[in-house]
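Protein modeling request. Please complete all fields; requests missing the sequence field cannot be processed.
Requester role: graduate student
Desired output: 3D structure, token encoding
Chains: 1
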Amino acid sequence: MNTDDLYSDNLGSQLNQFGSIASDSLDAAMDTDTLEMDGQGADVQDTVDDQEEDDEEFLEDDLSILMRAWVNERNAPDLLEYEGTTIENLMELVDFQTQKIKSQPPMIANIIKVDVDRVKYLVRSYLRTRLAKIEQHAMHYTRDDMYKERMSQNELEYAKGFVSLEEKHMRRSFLDQLPPHLRGLDETAGNGMNMVTKPNLDAAVFCRVRTNVGEFQFDTSEDPILMKRNNIFITRYNIIRNLLEDGKVELI
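Delivered output (252 residues):
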């Protein structure tokens, strides 16, 4: 089976799945009209919201996943999980579309090229955002096992090389001229201040709820707040950090 047949089969399968979802959504909408006439509109609305939530998760493609990861990465104060599988899938698609352009009429080729360039820009911006974060706190990320697992192999090697070059530069510039006990780059002062900079996890962020969370305790001194889908909150990053990692909220 050649590549065109494979993509045709996948497209047919996706269209069949989409048709099934559209049919289910239509049935849910008809049920909504009936139940609202019986005075049960509130319960039906929750059902429809849940159906839309399931459909959105089912239909989400690699481009949407990377778009959300890109926005989250740009707004989060620390380094997030690397979307390696998504990047690989998109680059394979870019290679396929690039080869396909050669056999298309000029008008169609230009349209495909615009989409390809858009994906390339998104991938570059996502990777550059991560590299900027790595350079800002390279020593901290290379010493923390959690962050080392979040980086790709290339990013980890880049971070280690950056730390090594930075240390050599500082030693040649001025550290070698200081007494031996003042040459450390990772010392902790008497007041607890560490020379190794870390991301500010208490920074304020805006987040949008992607799936119904229920009551959530933002602050121990306040009552729990109901987090429903599409609600927007401003809070400290550290409070919603686990929700972001679980995909229940997204940064905006």
